[in-house]
Input
Amino acid sequence: MSRTVETARGPVRSDALGKVLIHEHVFLMDMEYTFNYRADFFEEKTITEAADRLNELKAAGIDTIIDLTVLGLGRHIPTLAKAAALTDLNIVVSTGAYTFSDVPAPFQFYGPGLLKHAEPEPMIAHFVGDITQGIAGTGIKAGMLKCAIDAPGLTRGVERVMRAVARANRETGTPITVHTAPLQHTGRDVQRVLGEEGVDLEHVVIGHCGDSAEIDYLVELADKGSILGMDRFGIDFAISMEQRVATIAELVRRGYAGQLTLSHDCCAWSDFFPAVADYHATMPNHNYLHIHNDVIPALREAGVSDGDLDRMFIDNPRRLFEVG
Ligand SMILES: [Zn+2]
Output
């Protein structure tokens, strides 16, 4: 059944999302660093160049991206809205927090049993408010929840954020994407903790599964119902494009096309390199068009059909917004 999905330019129907890249960013930064050291971010061309890249993506046949920039990754919705106004691409924005260890500083003393006691967990109200009321007075509502669990595993901070995200999912019906570390198999912790909170695991994207070629692990996660994010195309230093493609082809051969989604996890502007030109020069395949230009032809070559591609780009993302 079609549902409403919120985007940076207002609601769209889930059956009108079209082709979706499930895990991307537009502006990705350490906001404190950028505000102190990267005056170039505040130049007009940061917005217009981002819009140009988004328009190229739309022209290449993608209709929607999920922007997974949350607390800890430099989310600034007023800036994003300026870029969104210059493109017809749908941009679904996210709420949640990205941490590998501690909670964001504003919550270290504020919460259940802490110096400033608050019950329930105050992060839940932030996340739910972003989904139901809009973010920071912009009126733009989040359409996706996000948290992370990396190599350090389920630290206290990571677990606290994850359980808050789970509660917000239960309250609002908004799907969840989790950054995971597949080499440490942290997707298992995600499914256990979210399962304990009563989250439908079909409402969950286990992000960064594409960094693994360990089929048994990926099948184990998929068999519990979650969507796998094969979502870092262009990050070639982690694992080659050929390996990423071969893993997807094998999963499709085994009947899992209905649980795979593809993306780059790239951005238009980042402070992760000294200048934005350095980012694009250092990681030349890490751009919005890599899947269109290189990955889809390679998948076809590996035996993935157009029907399978439609499931991965259209049906699976759509279903994520229609669960429950
Ligand atoms: Zn990401």
Observations:
- The two ends are 10 Å apart (CA to CA).
- The domain at 4-322 is CATH 3.20.20.140 (TIM Barrel).
